[in-house]
Amino acid sequence: MKRLSILFLHVLLGVFFFCNEVLAIPQVCTDAQHEEDLQLRIDMLGECLTGDEDEPLPLEFAAEVNRERGLIMMELGLFAESIVEFTDALALNEKDAYSLINRGVSYGKLGNFRQAIKDYKAALAFEESLADESLILLFKNYGDTLYFQRRYEEAVEQYNRALELDSSQDQVLNNRGTCFQEMERYKEAMVDYDSCLAINSENETCYINRARVHLKNEDFDASLQDYNRAVELDPGNEEILELIDNAERLREEAEKEDE
Fold first, then answer.
1. Can you give the residue ranges of every domain in the chain?
2. Which of 67, 93, 101, 202 has the fewest CB atoms nearer than 10 Å to its CB?
């Protein structure tokens, strides 16, 4: 019972095993104390895997421990290490769709889009057993990976699937709009950007994307309005300030041509 007692202690300390839900960590930890706490959790979970040889951990539970270690490593930005943990989890439970999804996310973070897509496709085999939240994560990240490969039509298909489950996903709307923009389908892009900002008026990236479409349409005032809103959300961002300077320059050139 020694090993089970250690596991119970870990649960009391806040280590949660995601049996029915999937959690991919989009934000990398930057707080030193929190980072130390996360590393401690990784070490404690490692003790679960290397504990009492006379009372081995059930395979399904061991897979969950590997998956949880992988998720924590993602939060720490240790994507190569997280891939190892998810791979170990899948060796113990090949039907672990959650590990497939999160390993795909980790591969994507490292720029290995080919392997990421392979994992997303494998996870889709278990689509019927996945909760909507997990499916949205799968479709969004699958779409993002296709976008980075410039496979915009296919990316839109995945974003559509995510939005069918939850139309309030502002970042999915922004990303689908970006695909439309890349395909020069500007009206559709604007619809998505407007919808995104109606849901989340502080989506800085969406303001920048919409500003670029306005600029493409030579609506300089609207473009500058969106760029200025973006810089309000992220004061001092040099890239946005450069975009503002460029838009102002283009407006001045257009005004001179009209004189």
1. 1-130
2. 202
